[in-house]
Design goal:
The chain is an alpha/beta fold. The chain has helices at residues 15-20, 58-70, 98-109, 145-162, 176-186, 207-212, 233-245, 259-268, 279-290, 296-310, 320-328, and strands at residues 31-37, 44-46, 54-56, 75-80, 114-119, 133-134, 142-143, 166-169, 195-200, 249-253, 273-277, 314-317. The protein is 38% helix and 16% strand. It binds ligand PBG.
């Protein structure tokens, strides 16, 4: 009898051997934590569909960021819930805006923390769309691309002035990376990087986020500016355009349902890549774990490693602190 007994299994026999040949590793350095800033003081309102996630006032965001930093999380992503919304979302570029205030407080209180800011208008407009509305007679109301570019540039410069370290536009207007780059350079922020949500799909996985950020569109949906989930080649064109316009890092969003897109970008581009493990992905993990149907720690770590394996250098995830804690405890699969 000459069966080829063990082959691939030789290096799978013990934890030590498995670690020796492990191709992808996860570290707290690869994770960024999204946070939601709201007005007030001492406020921490739980987001129902995202257990463990809160809308927090500036003082509480500072506390959370400080704790996360101590646990090894080096970057956060800020979303703002403004005091007042209007048709164009003007609170987004106010020097005293909610995210601007949070950025200044974090710069003072948590030195070294990388403050990435989401640039978009859906949290700031009364209608919940990601820019200025336009409608030609007889046409469907949609977002006016070029009028929105002007405001995105304003918002970006205002956030850079407050001390934001990375500008992350998530609006999906055409030409926004170029418009923001030009405005930042003209305002003296040529050293501030742009992380473009280059490939952002019109996804149902953003559902819980819209509760957290109070940013659901009051009519229609985002399909006229975010990408069709069916399109992979178009994703490469989106990325190529943003690279041409001067993006410093590219993001794919959501993460798990779009790992093929991420892997495609990894093959074609040499920029750093990010993936956004979004609210719906988080909510599914939490809900199934709550019912005892899956092991949260295990499935979470497997998900994050898979996103890294597909090509992400940086992962935006609501699980960042949970993952950092497990890694610090010496988590081994
Ligand atoms: C803003 C924005 C959204 C998310 C990040 N930035 C929502 C949307 O496009 O509707 C979603 C993040 C998440 O689901 O965790 N445009």
């Amino acid at each position: 009898m000459s069966f080829p007994a063990t082959r691939l299994r030789r290096f799978r026999q013990t934890p030590i051997l498995r670690r020796l040949v492990r191709e992808t590793r996860l570290s707290a350095d690869d994770l960024a934590l999204p946070l939601f800033v709201c007005p007030g003081e001492g406020v921490a309102r739980a987001v129902g569909s995202m257990p463990g996630v809160f809308q927090q006032s500036v003082d509480r965001v500072v506390e959370t960021a400080r704790e996360a930093f101590a646990e090894g999380i080096r970057a956060i992503l800020l979303f703002g819930l403004p005091e007042h919304k209007d048709e164009v979302g003007s609170a987004a570029w106010s020097a005293d805006g909610i995210v601007q205030r949070a950025v200044r407080a974090l710069a003072r209180e948590v030195p070294g923390l990388v403050k990435i800011v989401d640039v978009c208008f859906c949290e700031y407009t009364s209608h919940g769309h990601c820019g200025v509305l336009a409608a030609k007679p007889g046409e469907e109301t949609t977002v006016d691309n070029d009028a929105t570019l002007v405001n995105l540039a304003r918002q970006s410069v205002s956030l850079a002035e407050a001390g934001a370290d990375v500008i992350a536009p998530s609006d999906m207007m055409d030409g926004r990376v170029g418009a923001i780059r030009t405005a930042l350079d003209a305002a003296g922020f040529s050293a501030t990087p742009i992380l473009s949500y280059a490939v952002k799909f019109a996804s149902g996985f953003y559902g819980p986020f819209r509760e957290a950020a109070e940013s659901a569109p009051s009519f229609g949906d985002r399909r006229s500016y975010q990408m069709d989930p069916a399109n992979g080649r178009e994703a490469m064109r989106e990325a190529a355009l943003d690279v041409e316009e001067g993006a410093d890092m590219l993001m794919v969003k959501p993460a798990l349902p779009y790992l093929d897109i991420l892997a495609g970008l990894r093959r074609r581009f040499d920029l750093p890549l990010a993936a956004y493990h979004v609210s719906g992905e988080y909510a599914m993990l939490k809900a199934a774990a709550e019912r005892g149907w899956i092991d949260y720690d295990r499935v979470m770590m497997e998900s994050l490693v898979a996103i890294r394996r597909a090509g992400a250098d940086l992962i935006f995830t609501y699980c960042a602190r949970d993952a950092a804690r497990l890694l610090a405890e010496g988590w081994v699969e």
